[in-house]
Amino acid sequence: NAGVTQTPKFQVLKTGQSMTLQCAQDMNHEYMSWYRQDPGMGLRLIHYSVGAGITDQGEVPNGYNVSRSTTEDFPLRLLSAAPSQTSVYFCASSLNGGDEQFFGPGTRLTVL
Amino acid sequence: GNSVTQMEGPVTLSEEAFLTINCTYTATGYPSLFWYVQYPGEGLQLLLKATKADDKGSNKGFEATYRKETTSFHLEKGSVQVSDSAVYFCALRSGGTSYGKLTFGQGTILTVHP
């Protein structure tokens, strides 16, 4: 099992550009989520999904879109990047919402 | 809403010293409590958990007890090693409409010197 994988590991964008952060898991987990990690603030939930075709907003959803067309994949889209979106992004998955969550290695994004 | 407060870091210790990282929480209902660890350049890993009051979670020499009366879940280890150097996050998960959502503290950086 590869677990939770994320690509790319690093990315630099200019303000206004769009991009997609990829997340995939091979554990047949129903629950997937995206967090951002900022210094002194811990991790904050952006969006989550309880299964294919179902997504919902977390604590800080503005400026981000998600979709869940398959159980395995949960991409995060930045529509028009802003410097405030400079952060480290983590994807996580669990068998269900009440189970242990497994985190990917993260994507470090810088927006200039 | 839910919140988690951790002691401010960074924490610097010598090898074999005793470690305590304080964590208190605010939540509705009966949350589950977690400690996650993040080693340099890696994602978060679950270190230990407790799902009800008075439960003690333990792993790799670390322990934490779910204290509902003081809304706390302090992390302890009797003798730290250099390899314990990492960032530690306290987190909670409550049920109901918060199903599956983790609320994290700000993280505490631990550095252990030989």
Structural class of chain B: mainly beta
Q: Tell me the major beta sheet of chain B.
A: 6 strands, mixed
- Molecular shape of chain A: globular
Largest sheet of chain A: 7 strands, mixed
> Total helix count of chain B?
0
Written account of the structure:
- The complex is a heterodimer of chains A (112) and B (114).
- With 112 residues, chain A is mainly β.
- In chain A, 0% of the residues lie in helices and 50% in strands.
- Chain A is built from no helices and eleven strands.
- Chain A has strands spanning 4-7, 10-13, 19-25, 31-37, 43-51, 54-57, 64-66, 76-78, 87-94, 102-103, 107-111.
- In chain A, the strands form two sheets. In chain A, strands 2, 4, 5, 6, 9, 10 and 11 form a seven-stranded mixed sheet that branches. A four-stranded antiparallel sheet of chain A has the order 1-3-8-7, with no helix packed on it.
- The relative contact order of chain A is 0.34.
- Helices cover 0% and strands 50% of the residues of chain B.
- Chain B has strands at residues 3-6, 11-14, 19-21, 23-26, 32-38, 44-50, 56-59, 62-65, 75-77, 86-93, 102-104, 108-113.
- Chain B is mainly β.
- In chain B, strands 2, 5, 6, 10, 11 and 12 form a six-stranded mixed sheet that branches. A four-stranded antiparallel sheet of chain B has the order 3-9-8-7, with no helix packed on it.
- The chains are: A mainly beta (112), B mainly beta (114).
- The A-B interface holds A 4, 31, 33, 35, 40-45, 48, 50, 58, 90, 92, 94, 96-98, 100-101, 103-106 and B 4, 36, 41-46, 49, 89, 93, 95, 99-102, 104-107.
